[in-house]
Specification:
single chain; 298 residues; alpha+beta; Alpha-Beta Plaits; two-stranded antiparallel sheet; 12 helices; 38% helix
């Protein structure tokens, strides 16, 4: 469900470390945009006020422009004002992104809030986040969307495999080893690395990581662990560098723990691939599974 200032899929606390969809909608309606460091320079109350302005059906442009006075001029950019998506029906690019397995009728689309329509329309460039947003909105109380079973998702993601002896895997998963938290610690390391991608890669110095999904499963091949990750930028686009950094770091973390049990453990197959989201289960299923929400604890 959507929190007071953001959607759950955006993985933000009430401090709003980066602009939620509501704030982006408000600023674009007012013809302004703020750089990541400019947003972080704002007080929490100003961030929240901008987000609240974007949650209304009609954005109070004068109020947003007044709030923009708190943004350091160096980080403020004037952009063409962006109108909300038409209420009559979803844009063709969104329809194409949803594909034949999930349709939005004109009646459902019109019954959505202006913010929900903006959020879905803006995520047509990232079907992973679009799937998460659609599921969240459809499960909200009094949602006008038809309730459907979770749909399989397949698309661009990062992946890597860790090879180790089955006995080493059992030892890693034993409750007495690191209190049974070996994979949790590996996952935390991967998400932490993804959030620091801008510090590591010069070409990504101005790119801020947004929602970060990272999980694993044991495949049908004994001794093979699959890690998959999907990290987005703060604007909502897929972030390949951070995604690959996440799965690779998680794989290295598992290797670092497993090497005392299996000196021949190895990592392979790291890369960006178009494939189904399989992780979060104990088997190698061909359909998507529920994914653990990263939150802000890492």
């Amino acid at each position: 469900m959507k929190t007071r200032f953001s959607y759950a899929f955006e993985e933000l606390t009430e401090e709003l470390q980066r602009p939620p969809k509501a704030a982006l909608r408000a600023m674009l309606a007012a013809g302004i945009m703020v750089a990541p460091r400019g947003w972080q320079a704002l007080g929490i109350d100003v961030r929240q006020a901008i987000a609240v302005a974007g949650m209304h059906d009609v954005v109070n442009i004068a109020m947003v422009q007044e709030l923009a006075r708190f943004i350091p001029p160096t980080f403020l950019k004037l952009v063409p004002r962006m109108a909300d998506p038409p209420r009559e029906q979803p844009a063709p690019v969104l329809v194409n992104a949803l594909g034949p397995m999930r349709t939005l009728s004109p009646q459902e689309w019109a019954a959505l809030s202006a913010l929900d329509r903006y959020a879905l329309d803006s995520l047509a460039i990232n079907t992973r986040l679009l799937w998460r947003a659609l599921e969240e909105i459809s499960r909200a109380p009094n949602s006008p969307l038809t309730k459907t079973a979770p749909q399989p998702w397949s698309g661009a993601l990062a992946r890597c495999e860790v090879y180790l002896r089955p006995e080493a895997f059992r030892q890693l998963m034993h409750p007495d080893y690191l209190a049974g938290r070996a994979m949790v610690l590996a996952r935390v390391a991967g998400v932490r690395a993804a959030r620091r991608a801008a510090e590591l890669f010069d070409l990504q110095a101005e790119t801020v990581a947004g929602p970060a999904e990272l999980d694993w499963c044991a495949t049908r091949n004994q001794g093979v662990l699959l890690w998959q990750g999907h990290v987005s930028t703060w604007e909502g686009a897929f972030y390949p560098a951070a995604s690959l950094l996440a799965v690779s770091t998680a794989g290295v973390a598992v290797y670092d723990m497993a090497k005392e049990f299996d000196p021949h453990a190895s990592i392979s197959g790291a890369g960006i691939a178009e494939e189904p989201w399989k992780v979060g289960a104990v088997d190698d299923r061909e359909e998507a599974t529920s994914v653990y929400n990263t939150g802000q604890a890492v």
